[in-house]
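Example 3.
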Amino acid sequence: MDKLFVVKIGGNIIENSTKLESFLQDFSELKGFKILIHGGGKKATAMANKLNIPVQMIEGRRITDEDNLNIITMMYGGEINKNIVVKLQALNCNAIGLSGADGNLISAVKRSVKDIDYGFVGDITEINLNLFLLLLENALTPVCCAISHDKNGQLLNTNADTIASSIAKSLSSHFEVSLWYCFEKNGVLGSISDEQSVIELINPEIYDDLKSKEMINLGMIPKIDNCFDALKNGVNMVKIGSPKMIKINEVHTTLIL
Amino acid sequence: MDKLFVVKIGGNIIENSTKLESFLQDFSELKGFKILIHGGGKKATAMANKLNIPVQMIEGRRITDEDNLNIITMMYGGEINKNIVVKLQALNCNAIGLSGADGNLISAVKRSVKDIDYGFVGDITEINLNLFLLLLENALTPVCCAISHDKNGQLLNTNADTIASSIAKSLSSHFEVSLWYCFEKNGVLGSISDEQSVIELINPEIYDDLKSKEMINLGMIPKIDNCFDALKNGVNMVKIGSPKMIKINEVHTTLIL
């Protein structure tokens, strides 16, 4: 099987133009099939502030009312996505920017209200494997923003980590998939205050052990759960680290089963 | 040859949600191959006003400085494009929203400064015919916003009428193309104050005669020149009128050679 890289970049990279350009240079040099996934929550929050639109976060998750959904559509689907695409084009990477509505790429259902009403937030139901295959086979590099749709005319804000793992799982039927999460740390840290404390390898046993010792930052738990879910569903390899890891053999965390 | 409809909608339709939804319903029912092109200048201006960003227009054309380019990218590429796409998806039209940077769809050069510096405005140099063919052959309906790129990392604001005619001309090598401009009037009017004064047929002789009698509104002249240019370069038929003309045989202007 051919190799496919599914790379997700976090908001701290997107909002720093030097970091972003350096990352895009490295990404453009990755040989073979690849897909980029981005959110951009910090930029969306900054725009909401400029427009005097309140932003409500609960446990790090955005409550997406109609105004915030419009901002997300403008920022993720427009400014961030198109600026990434135009820069990749200049680097000879034939990028094509897409939301989950485009070509029915990512369908979802609006999250049902239990304790918290998250608003226009989507839980993914289907990845359009055929469209990804069509694009990749034609030497296009999909650049996906963190928006899905419900097939009934509603855009939905959707977690970019989950989009990345859902795409990776779906495409593992046709590729040997490496899923890389790039963020502002060098990997999963054993001690949140020590950048050098990267845990280089995590398997389910190590993970259980780290959790029982409360050595994993709470915010990392859904991310790591997401990674193991991907590995259990066909993804070959998952890495968490700084954007530099895609180019050089920088210290990072590798997750295996 | 198969038929292809290239339909451009103006800002007055985009900013009126009732008109837009009615148009999208009709557009979704057009049988066969089709492409939609939109701008959204009025929505961009409204957003600039909200963000206290000055908008300078000279002879109806926007001076696109960096701040205004960002707004255009957010609004055309993001909010407007994705909201059209998600609505078309709900109408069983497999729309895919694209800027000219996506897949290198529309390349351009930044307009050189003569008397006026229009800023980040692009004059089209190339349409990516192969990508349009790939998408259309796979039952996708491209929805193109009025943004091109210079292949060197710069997005460029580009006249939506010109994008529509450039796409129509390029695709006329493979399709029998009808190019339809939908706007707030019922067609080219003989008297600007009389909505009933639609000139139903314009050929080059009639056009010269109307111009000599000063019966054509000045703002319409570049639009009509654009239409004749398309007809001279392979486009089969050009129509100008209200969005309703794509569904019913509403009065409109037909241009022929």
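The two ends of chain A are 20 Å apart (CA to CA). Chain A has a mean pLDDT of 95.
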